[in-house]
Structures are given as structure tokens and as C-alpha cells.
Amino acid sequence: MAASLRPLFLAIIPLLMISSLIRSSECQGLGFYWASPEDGNLADICNDHTNGSYEYVAIACLNFTGAISVPPYCTTLGPDIDICQGLGIKVFLSLVGSPDLSPEYVLGTEGFICNEFLNDSSGPSVLGATVNGTDFHFRSGSNNSLDLLAQALRDNCILDDKKVYLSAAPRCQIPDYYLDAAINTGVFDYVWVQFFGDPVRIGPGNRQTQVNTN
Asked: What are the residue ranges spanned by the domains of the chain?
């Protein structure tokens, strides 16, 4: 009987360790993704976070489909961004859409992002407030030169008054077609994996399943 219970006991130990870590962390380090006003008022979300658990928010406000553009509803987010940052929440500019960058345009794109969204001393931001960093969140288009853009943001966007953060949001399949090369540069401060709406490889034979958060 004792021998038969040993595998069960060994299996329970990691679960107890994980449970202990979860309780001790008190859900610190959570973030959320804001894609449009349909997700709610940004300032209200930051103000309503429970026990200060949110530390990050990524706002989808720079679209790389065709000419790089900022959705009109993002240009009035300045006061909301200030409120979130005042609560200690880091705000990331999420780069979305269908990019098709060439190496020749990387430095110009990096300079635009750095000066218009991150640099407090370069004048009013397109958003009405500067953000803490950039987030790579691509699901279509080309993966050309995204690694060069990530490297350029790390190497060239150096501000005296604050650290510039970089994050990436790959899908859970490895490798992520769009972000793998960029992540492999090693320049990202955060990588948050998106498990929703994506087929996942699990178990022997790489069986496919669908993760559904509903």
C-alpha cells in the first residue's frame, strides 16, 4: 500500500508548491490588454484593479497595416494614461496590424515610436501622454525586420529620464511565426504568452487542442 501511494505523494508535492507560490504572490504582476473603447474606460479599469494587482497595461494604439497610423480614439487617452501611471501601472504602446517592414525603414520607424510616444522632452505625445514602453503584438502580415525594429528600439531609444521597456505577446505555439526572431534577440523585458483563441501543441505527437477562455 505504501509503495502504491508514493507516486501520488510525489505528484502532490509540486501542486502544493505552486499553491504556496500563488498565495504568497497575492496575484502580483497582472496586466491587461486594451484594444479599443469597447473594452471599457482605460482610467476606470486602472482605478478598479483589485488590491493593486495590475502592474501593466498594453494599449493597441499603433497600427502597422499599410501606413502606420494611430486610431482616433487613442489620441485622447492622455489623461487616462496619466492616471494609470500615477497608480504605478506601466503603460505599453502595443504595435498591431499587418507589418511589412524593410531594413531601410526600421530606423525611421524606431525614431517615430521613440520620439512621438516615449520621449517626454520631445513635445506633446500623439496620445496626449508618453508611455513606458512598446509591446509587439502581431498576428498577420510579414515578420520581416521585426527583430531589427526590436533591436533598434533597445539600442537607440535611450532616454535620460526613464527606462524604455520592451514586451512581446507571442501565441503559445513555439515558434511564433511573427515574433520568434524578435524574441530571440534577447532585448525584451517581458514576454506574455497569449493562450486564448490559438491552437496549442500538447502531449505526445503534438496533438492539437483549442484553448477557450469563455
From this structure: 27-210
Assigned superfamily of 27-210: Glycosidases (3.20.20.80)
Give the C-alpha separation, 153 to 164, whole Å.
Answer: 9
Question: pLDDT digit string (tens) for 37-73?
Answer: 999 999 999 988 655 678 999 999 999 998 899 999 9
- The answer to whether the Cα torsion of 60, 64, 66, 67 is positive or negative is positive
Q: The pTM is what?
A: 0.77
Grid coordinates representing 156 are 537607440
Q: Which three cell numbers stand for residue 104?
A: 531601410
CA neighbor of 128 nearest in space, from 160, 81, 174, 168: 81
Report the sign of the C-alpha dihedral through residues 26, 212, 57, 105, in that order: positive
The Cα 10–Cα 23 span in angstroms is 21
Rounded distance, CA 130 to CA 77, Å?
A: 10
Please give the sequence-ordered ranges of beta strands (E in DSSP) within the chain, or none if there are none.
30-34, 54-63, 90-96, 133-136, 165-168, 190-191, 199-202, 207-210
